[in-house]
Design goal:
4-stranded antiparallel beta sheet
Length: 101
Amino acid sequence: KVEFCPKIGFAGHFKLSGADNPGIVHKLTSVLAVNSLTIGNMKTSREEAPFGGTELFTMEGKSVAYEPLASNFDWLKIKEELQEMGESMNCDVEFDDITKS
């Protein structure tokens, strides 16, 4: 029996918060997938905003990329893409390198 345990080359923590929009999960996870990241774990929640009657959505989790990383892998570029996506949907997006954590 051969066991294979891939080595994580990059681990990132992501958090999105803002007004709930159709397709919000798909858009964030698509940016991760295009950059060869998989979801390690993720949770979502919704709550009523204190003012205005809108629903606030939060999505938080861990994404990983396994070794060998692509030669053009750049987590700061991914962070920028996620933040631009968030701005287009009026959401705040954080993405941090937690590889050494």
